[in-house]
Design brief:
Largest sheet: 4 strands, mixed
Distance between the termini: 36 Å
Structural class: alpha/beta
Number of helices: 3
Number of strands: 8
Length: 147
Amino acid sequence: MNNGTELMHPSALRPQTTFLYFEDLAEPAKFLEEALELKLVEDHGFAKIYRMSGESFLGIVDEAGGHHKAQDKNAVLVTMVVDDVKPWHERLQCTGIRMLSGIKTVPEANLECFFFVGPGGYHFEIQKVLDPEDVAGFKSQGGGGLI
């Protein structure tokens, strides 16, 4: 990969943002603000950015002004890590959101989780990491970590 010249060391990565694309932002904005209670931190009109936690953000973009077009089927999973999945599961069931699973334990990954469908057909996961050492490993890397 190196043609003999010395490569510059890039600066450290900063906050991470995942962008999801939609034909219209009204439904996903309502979902993020009301169902998930995420805080809007930037509104550019054609794009809105919400804080997930620490330095982790989720952006929604109107396809008319964005880099990509909305798709009929998306290969994206947005995972949110919480301390207790049960209240989230109950809350989202009450909103009428389409659930893809009940709460389940995944022993090989040492987590508890459930999946649901959000606006635009995007899949979401609410997850609890069961081993405190696993959570600590993410926190020790700097930044916001998992929680």
